[in-house]
Amino acid sequence: MRVRRGLIVLAIVALGALALSPAIAWLQIDPLPGDINLNWQEHRLFLPFAQSLVASIALGLLFLWAKK
Question: How many domains, the chain?
């Protein structure tokens, strides 16, 4: 039963990171290790995986604390 709960928490954190990535990119915070920045010709792609993950974990802990 613990494995399922752990997978659910991991999925929620991953989905939260995915949902928060546009907002984190809009804030233009310096990239953390784990963020991906690709530049080619006249195009730029920034994928803030680490920043989104940190924000998602912080919000998840905040919601868990507020729930108790």
Answer: 1
